[in-house]
Request: fold
Amino acid sequence: MRLFRVSNASLYTPRPVGMLITYIVLIFWTVVVLFPLYWMFVTSFKLPIQVDSGPFYIPFVDFQPSLHAWQYILFGDLANDTRRQYLNTVVVATTSTILVMLIGSAAAYGLARFHYRPRLGMIVAFILCVLLTVVLAILRVPVQFGILIGVALFVIAMLTIVKRFHRSLGNNDIAFWMVSQRVLPPVAVVIPIYIMFQQLKLLDTWPALIITYVAANLPIVVWLMRDYFLTIPIELEECAAIDGASRYRTFWSIVLPLAVPGLVATFLFVLVFAWNEYLFALFLTNANAQTLPVSIAAQNATRGPQWWYMSVLVLIMILPVIIMAILLERYMAKGLLVGAVKG
Amino acid sequence: MKRKLALSKLALSILAAFGVAVLMLAACAAPAAQPPVVQTVVVQQTVAVPQTVAVPQTVAVPQTVVAQQTVVVQPTAAALPYAGQTVNIITFTGPQIAEPLQRRAPDFEKLTGAHVNVVTVPFADLYQKVLTDASTGTNSYDAWVFDPQWMGDFVNAGFVEDLTDKVKNDKDLQWDDVAPFFRDFSATYNGKVYAIPLDGDFHMLYYRSDLLEKDGLKPPETWDDYLTIAAKYNGQDLNGDGQPDYGSCLFKKKAAQSYWTITDFAASMIQSQGTGQGAFFNTDNMQPLVNNDAFKKALQLYKETGKYGPPDELNLDVGNTRGLFTSGRCALSIDWGDIGSLAIDPATSKVQDKVGAAILPGSKEVLDWSTGKLVPCDAKTCPYAINGVNHAPFAAYGGWSGAVNANSKVKDAAYAFISYMSQPAQSNVDVTIGKTGFNPYRTSQFLNREEWVKAGMSPKAASNYLGAIEDSLNSPNMVLDLRIPQNQYYQQVVLDQAVSQYLAGELTEEQTMKQIEDAWNAKTDELGRDKQLAAYKASLGVQR
Amino acid sequence: MDVAKTTSVAQVQVVPRRARTDQFSTASFILPAVLIILFLSIFPLLVSLYVSMSRLQFARGGVELNFVGLANYAKLLVGIDQTRFLGKFGTPNIFGWLVLGLVALGLAYWIVQYIRTTRVTAIGLAGRLILAVFAMSLALLTVLTLADGGRPGTLWVTLFYVYVGIAVQYALGLLLAYLCAQHIPGRRFFRVVFLLPMMITPVGVAYMFRMMVDTSVGPLAPLWVVLGLRDVSWVNNPWTARGAILVSDIWEWTPFMFIVLLAALESLPTEPIEAAVVDGANKWQIFREITLPALLPVSTTLILIRMIEAFKIIDLPNILTSGGPGTATESMTLESYFVWRALDVGGSAAVAYLLLFVVTMVATAYGVLVRRRVEVEY
Reply:
């Protein structure tokens, strides 16, 4: 019985003509991908006058390279800021990604294996209670009281009114709702979120960004991992259940190890999203927790974009991610939405 | 029974989760950004405890300028008035503006004991951050490097501290040394001082002095002259690299700085009776001054410069045009003070000593406000004309100034730092260094050529550059940038978009002017015409 | 929503329930995610909704929001901002009317066909009618704004970016994935390299492309001169400007499609293909009859995810052209951002909510039309 799909099945090895065409296309696209990056690399060694005077392509041949940009960013005036921002980016991105993987995978597993039937009534009651809490907060009632009142009302509603409404939603609705969270552009919600964290006194701290990124990236993890979990045969888990293992045990010890490829690929995706996020980082941080994307955008100052500094920052930003991609690449082939393919 | 238990189980679990979440958040709410710890120290109102020593300085120009220099006596521990206080000041990521603040912060700390923390954010988002911080009551910043245009919104909302008294009692600041325009208009609102200038922002004309000299031409005095000269040099190779270059390079990119340039063209036709007349609205009824022959001519002139400029001029912002000019590819350009200092640095320029600066071109015709038509310049219509030409140098953006957050807990220390940065001892050095981004705004700065020569300008270039600054700053007809509530909407959204559409050929002149007029009027009515009129008049008013 | 009804019970396999504690344990899997998303989304959503119906003003001590009902929306749809949002309407020629007629007929046919099926529900019919109206208005908008004297607004430009962008990204990603799925030396190298564009922060990509497409000092400048285009710039023409943005967008996001499709291709079972080869099918036939249908479920999910992200495009038009020339390259999110920057938070939220509405419509239409055809197994 085939328990796993071994993924090294490629279609077949092409004939020489096919090989030639293949390589032409692939190498063409490689050049297309790498050339802008090369240009950035070269720009990081240019003086302003060399950038403004027209394209110079090769250091030492076309123009005399200068280390001024690297010096400024890594050792000079901006060095302290760069170091701090780098640390912030690393901490915030990895922490939020690990958290979101844990929470998201659990949710994805739940959506793949269990029948959820949240009652519409309960959801409506919940929304109304949150609305009430918000209104109370606007009316200057302390946040904690507002929350307690909201919770109390919700419990009461649950025990009384909600019972009357039987219509419920299903897994698909939950999944669709989750993905719909990504629709609204951040610019519309950034101020309310700012106010929320301000009330909680979490502005300019790591937790603010971590929580925001977890919430923002959960839908992606849930969608990607759910499809993956659906491909893992149920028999193993049934055996485990018969043997008396709890759901958690089954999930942790049996399903997750099987899903490592998918987990790794999703991890990389989400890490990239968190690593590169700009708008929330701009608004929820000041000096202490500022991350690198903000620094890149900041290089567009009143003097115009400082291309040389920007290039340095972009390069040092993508370096760790590239390294991680190289290391994790072997897992990615087997991961990602394998399950939706019927076989 | 079973169902009820099941429900309450679920409800209980949700409740538990809620509670845990709340507890967690409350417990973990570790404020990393501590509000400044304020130690109440009884201090005098004035700054530090210096002794003022008058040091006469003779400079290498036929003018003897006596500059006051503040010599600070070595302070003892007891004389550190702000010991233990932290001042958080926010500005945009430098090195411009931020670098001198960061460089001088330790000196200030040694003098006064206050620790200055310079926070930087991207330039495009500075306003939003300051506004969000102030309007939500977060107040993480004690001082802002402030654009005087923001006064329109900030003062009315009570965010900015009134500095009039502090300035009056601050001898070291040498308030009278600040050029009248910045002192009486930029820094004040409704007669009160709200910001201390650190930098003088206004547009000037830049030209290739070597080219004009060779051909015996004078720098353009009117915009028609500008076009003539631009046409002459367009297509020639101006920097010896074998490629044809451009007659005029202007920043026309949308949502960048283009909405100031159009005012450069229009202002000298609209304002001729002095700064207090204003160039944007009619001071009787708040009607926009954008639907008339002057503005129409300005649009046409603006568009025509495109014939003599780079093909992608519509996508060039000020960084691009500066680069083009300093690499020798433009005969004429407009800029703030930056080209002057960028031109002398070989890392950024190929035109060292080939750059001249002059007051913005003007016009020989001005607008009759009642008829909307252009009338020729004479003694009555253009009292400040030079050679029959009405000049109206435009103080675009206003010049970075330091302002104090009215809700700060360390207002005195914050004010002291801003004052320190503006005092001649510091400021006069900083304005000569290109990378500080500080352009001259004090009379002593452009009279003292010596510092500039020391910084690398040739004496001739220094005279020319500073002379142009002096002409602009001394002009009684300088144009104040718009400072009414929500001026960003008027300028950055409406004006900028309409002009951009006009340049792209989407609208005709009439359509453009009408679009601006309608949108401006709609906004004015929405905010209250009387309120806006009062604010506009307040922004133009001056009291000594 | 019909997607919910296609739940095929057999696939969501339920391990047999034991006790009541079971309900807790199953709930606990999904509860943290649901709670986190709820807390951080409900509040901002509701506040934004309120803000979209108000206007901001400064007053003593802070800001005040004055409720104005639907005025912000009216401004966008029928008021001052209509030409920016919807576009300027021209007069269509005969071809335009023809297209409109065809679309109307097609939609009518679709609705009639539904009515004639046996399982007609009120909600189903109402939903389809709404979708039809929406599709018709989009078609109308397209024809009117692309006609003589017309000019598309941000709504249309955003849809243009999304559809053309995704189409090209998908095709390109599929091509690259197909080629990389073959047994050729160096596969792994290509796989890593092709992943790179996605890993750069979008703001960085935008600035990078601003350098690249600069026709006077950028790296492609000599090419431009050789082609005789020295005095021509892509920034002046609306379509070339949009093209520049599309090129950058495609460069940046093709890896997303590529990596997912590659994984899917590599995990396809080989038996059907081997059987087909034995039967004498050629490469193209195998691809069209076997591979493509097998990839359809993956593709639909992939396109849905990418579509939702693509609607929010902002960095590229902002940094490359600031939405210019005029308003030719401005997307809805960019319009929302510009307006927000000028303190019109109400107008900005209104644009954002209209975007939400459009995306919901499109995603629903997508779900109804496409995914029903595909045997999606949940």
